[in-house]
Amino acid sequence: MSEYKFEKHVKYAESHEWVRIEEGVAVVGISDTAQDLLSDVVFVELPEVGSEVKAGDEIAVVESVKAAENVLAPVSGVITAVNEELLDAPELVNETPYTAWFFKIQPTNKLETELAALMNADAYAKFVEETAH
């Protein structure tokens, strides 16, 4: 088994975003696996509040000393909040990937279908293990 942490109460995308539903709102960040592969996060670019997004859209950027990666929306809806704390402290993504959320989405009526297309922690752990090189 890998050394990565997997949260049981979130769903995962193959592109390494996680999503957790809190009071009907989708809270989104990147997984422990993603932050580890990126290495030291030095910059985060967040989407605009009020933006409409579709699942799979590139809506944020996370930059590290190694690379810049797009952060995709795991579900469709409207951006209702961004975590401005990450603008001044992007290292929080490395330190606490499951509390250092990037943005929140008020989901559309497709939420259940879109969540069903994502992986639970066990499936994601298996996916990570199978795709590791």
Radius of gyration: 14 Å
Could you describe the largest sheet, including whether it forms a barrel?
6 strands, antiparallel
List the secondary-structure elements in sequence, H or E. EEEHEEEEEHHEHH
Stretches where pLDDT is under 50 for at least 5 consecutive residues are none
Write out the strand line-up for the largest beta sheet, numbering strands in chain order. Answer: 1-2-3-9-8-5
Which descriptor suits the 3D outline? globular
Question: What is the arithmetic mean of pLDDT?
Answer: 95
Strand segment count: 9
Share of residues in strands: 25-35%
Based on helices, strands and strand pairing, what is the structural class? Answer: alpha+beta
Give a description of the structure.
- The protein has 133 residues and is α+β, with helices and mostly antiparallel strands.
- 24% of the residues lie in helices and 33% in strands.
- The protein has helices at 32-38, 85-88, 92-95, 111-116, 121-131; strands at residues 11-12, 17-22, 25-30, 41-45, 52-53, 58-64, 68-72, 77-82, 103-107.
- The strands form two sheets. A six-stranded antiparallel sheet has the order 1-2-3-9-8-5. A three-stranded antiparallel sheet has the order 4-6-7.
- A hairpin with a 4-residue loop joins strand 1 and strand 2.
Keywords:
6-stranded antiparallel beta sheet; 133 residues; alpha+beta
What's a quick, concise take on this entry?
The chain has 133 residues and is an alpha+beta fold. Helix content is 24%, strand content 33%. The strands form 2 sheets. It has a 6-stranded antiparallel beta sheet.
